[in-house]
Protein 1
Amino acid sequence: MRMGDSELPAHEAVNLYLEEAADLIELSDEMRGALERPAREIAVQIPVRLDTGEIRMVRGYRVQHNDSRGPFKGGIRYHPTVDLSEVRALASLMTWKTAIVDIPFGGAKGGVEIDPGELSVPELERMTRRFTLMISSDLGPYRDIPAPDVNTDAQVMAWIMDEYSDRAGYSPAVVTGKPLSLGGAPGRERATGLGAVFVLDEFLLHHHLQLIGSRVAIQGFGNVGRAMAWELFRRGARVTAVSDVTGGLHDPGGLDVPSICDHIDGGAPLNTFTDADPIDNDTLLTLECDVLAPAALGPVITSDNAAEVKAKVVLEAANHPVTPGADRLLAERGITVLPDVLVNAGGVTGSYFEWTQNIQQFTWKAERFEQELEDRLRLAYREVHAKADQYHSSLRGAAFAIGLTRVAEATRIRGYLS
Ligand code: NAD
């Protein structure tokens, strides 16, 4: 992946966006200081017993950014590049995201510095259980609720829930993104990708444009990228490129997304699909298309390659895929960026629906889940759009301004700063 001005620590990049939004809403210096920094940072060294009998020490983090509007909430990722600055940035993004879609959560994030591909399933389970144990006093259905992120899935959530429940009693609401048999919600798995499509569609409607026939290039074909590709294909958009860590596929006429999914589900790597041209991950970002959707890791659009982006719209399905320098360059070139804090908020919104059902011990039909998701994300887009018009700001500036206003109000009224 491209680097460039990504050397700005991730949490400082998020704070730049925060400062811009704080200027828009004329937030006091005192409140800025309080909201830029995480409430709590937990760093642990996890001993993992390998199948060989050896112990491997692995670093793990949980950063709890803000809980003024509700319990801390955010995913846990397993990746070798995880570091504290990135987890801080991701935790802060969660605080603004939950406020933008107006759900009763704060923001947190976790990460373990590991390539899970290097571990066997029993090793992964032991690591997950030990990590959970080490942070469990700071977790809880009304305290901090993890969810899946990069390289973690429903199985990992099941282990976290089981380990936590061992001590606290049966607690399905302590994590979201669980398997359906353990209180997971039908619809949660594809909620992030689906939510991104609702946001894109609402944007297009506002600009008298159509999803049908739009050319979309997607980087990342995991939970988010795949669900997005599937839904775009189903709605008649032309998915012209997809990629994952193995490489990419390109067809200007539109890829056959269901066949690619079948190919992967059969156990084959994405880049061995033969009914499309190969493309590398850097070239995918510079393809001629209507919508470019980074849905893997950040930051991939930097001041080094922003001038080469030919899309009309960048749909930030991943977290912080565009650096602040690139954001400015794209704006100067008239390319609209739909920001991560809005675009991928479908994931945490779906998590909210799952958590709600868990604590009420009442299940919704899948249709209700999807309808509520659609209503909330379309409304959130319209609010951000209206705020951008009011402030003559970017959509990102407006989204952060909405989030910041709501969090600052809750922080003030709870008397956090007194
Ligand atoms: P995932 O682990 O399911 O998938 C990640 C995808 O990215 C995989 O296809 C992987 O092969 C690909 N990838 C990894 N490294 C790559 C590289 N160097 N070049 C190209 N592709 C690469 O993760 P996910 O849950 O789909 O998350 C993707 C992004 O969406 C992350 O930024 C995550 O924080 C964000 N996000 C996820 C959720 C969620 O509900 N899962 C919610 C909000 C935001």
Protein 2
Amino acid sequence: MDKIRLATVWLAGCSGCHMSFLDLDEWLFDLAQQVDVVYSPVGSDLKIYPAKVDVCLVEGAVANEDNLELIYTVRRNTKILISFGDCAVTANVPGMRNMLGGADAVLKRAYLELADTGQQLPHAPGIVPELLDRVLPVHQVVPVDIYMPGCPPSADRINAVLESLLKGELPHMVGRDLIKFG
Ligand code: SF4
């Protein structure tokens, strides 16, 4: 039987969800027998999201042009897209900047008003990704198949969801153990 092609993606998040993934500890060895990790900030150094991905865990909200481009590619090339963690599901912490207004207000506050010296806006076309005016949860940009909240989701929750998928079943996301936020 072909192995499941698994990817994980890191958008605007703190990487805490990926750290929780690593908390799967020895179960990662079992997982490695059953999946090919084809793209991940922790599992490979590939720069281009590949085609024909079976399952992708997406950490973080969509906050800049790079995130936007990547999430469209992920959706196009992935069968089951999982919104992985509260930032992906609700925009959570990165979404707090939405209260300040658009991207210009945020950049002005951070780089001009609060800077002690060398006030200047970051601007390097092609190098510094442009901020979107609003930080968006993943499902407001592309359709999502499974929502896995948590900040971060516990290793047990990640395990339960992946175990179901490995058996060829969709996880039944109900109850405190699987859908409690925070
Ligand atoms: Fe970090 Fe929590 Fe966001 Fe995950 S959900 S990226 S742990 S802030």
Protein 3
Amino acid sequence: MEVVVQKDYEQVSKAAAQIVADVLNARPNAVLGMATGSTPLGLYQELVRRHNAGELDFSRVTTFNLDEYVGLPVHHPQSYDYFMHENFFKHVNIPAQNINIPSGTTSNYRAFCAWYEKRIGECGGIDLQILGVGSDGHIAFNEPTSSMSSRTRLKTLARQTIDDNARFFEKREDVPIYAITMGVGTILDARRIILLASGKGKAWAVAQTVEGPVTSMVTASALQMHQDAKVIVDHDAAAELKMRDYYEFIYEMKPSAPAV
Ligand code: F6R
């Protein structure tokens, strides 16, 4: 796992946008795994800026979102479908038929989840998966004790996640209790993964992800098993990393490292 420590949220977002741009320049028909929440907003803004500047074309891109709340229709302002369209899709040129978001209102969750997995495979798998991390260390909605080989499925949210996400709803009781989410195994199948984190509230989760044991109690720690995972954090989110000096040294020495 590579750890990149940036000064602040803006630099985290820019570093992540550069990685997405590199992927799209190398492979204009790349398949991107998308995350919602506060963390990737700056990344999406930077991608939209580059698109508007004529630097990035999304016309051949396919996307798969990580998760969706159960019970929220697509036009609900707190649905992840709505979030993605408002904050990203309506500002770039991804063809509508290339956008895939789990359905929070399907009449058959089991069949839908199986179809979602199959669809990812049919599109050639995910080239780059973008992740945030929950304060409890979850990725997507893979809450503590989720199987490290789990696939897309229905999941009950942890109380901590319901509390954390209550800020987006009028009342805590409005936060859905269930979500449909890609599994840890689904995420680990992506060819490349970037996990972004910003702020003190993520410091514990980041330290556990990078330096803690690989454990289903912190599903982000599964990234330690991935061959191409990069964790991009700001100073606050890096606050509890014991080996921070080493990560900064690696980053500093990177330009003079032998080509591989
Ligand atoms: C959202 C998702 C979640 C969030 C996590 C952090 O699609 O998969 O795992 O990435 O809950 O959320 P924020 O960024 O709002 O702190």
